Amino acid sequence: MPTLESDSVTITPSEVLEYLFCPRYIYFMNVLGISQQEAKRFKVVQGRQVHRQKQIRNRAYLRKKLGVVKREFEVYLSAPRYHLRGQVDEVLTLADGSLAPLDYKFAEWKNRLYAGYRMQLVLYGLLLRENYGKPVQRGFLVYTRSQNLVVPVDIATNDFEKAIDILAAILDISRTGFLPRRTPHKSRCVDCCYRNICV
């Protein structure tokens, strides 16, 4: 499996989501150092509150129907060889000995798994695999605005390989200062915090 060269740049799963939304997010944030001021964004603030509430309410609840034998909460991990770091909402140990990341989303389930959510879960899985040395074959998303619906997500080897390729692309932008193409989805530009400076 490919690895990335070493240096001090680190990447979070949230940055990967932003890259998937538009590669230029990385350029504005990491190369030009312009903040998104994300704390002012309603969904981000609400999502953080939901995380805090869930971790207080659910600590004693074991997800038996998912085959969970152990849970760890808010686990901060890094994988230096991939320049990846992040905090996993829950690390689940399953009855078969494998691990699975669980991530809360302040969102409704609309019968569609968004690519960004899936990739975020794969990145958490990569962190678990690197740090625990155990297989990761699935993860779980909790949609808090759909009565905490739990959606299982299978994770395959090629998912990890795709994640590593994306990490390499983000690292390349951060190192070289190369201005990438903007997203081909122009509708995303309407709600972009960088729209006034993106040429």
Describe what this molecule looks like in 3D.
- The chain is 36% helix and 21% strand.
- With 199 residues, the chain is α+β, with helices and mostly antiparallel strands.
- It has a five-stranded mixed β-sheet.
- Helix 4 (115-132) links the parallel strand 3 (99-105) and strand 4 (138-143).
- Helix 1 runs antiparallel to helix 4 (115-132).
- The mean pLDDT is 86.
Which helices and strands appear, and what pairs or packs with what?
Blueprint: H1 13-21, H2 24-31, H3 42-57, E1 68-79, E2 84-94, E3 99-105, H4 115-132, E4 138-143, E5 149-154, H5 157-176
Helix pairs in contact: 1-4, 2-5
Overall number of strands: 5
Briefly note the structural class of the backbone: alpha+beta
On the 0-100 scale, what is the average pLDDT?
Answer: 86
Which band does the percent of strand residues land in?
15-25%
Pattern of helices and strands: HHHEEEHEEH
Shape: globular
Number of helices: 5
* Rg value: 17 Å
Span between termini: 37 Å
Brief digest:
The protein is an alpha+beta fold and 199 residues long.
Which features would summarize this protein structure in a list?
five-stranded mixed sheet; 199 residues
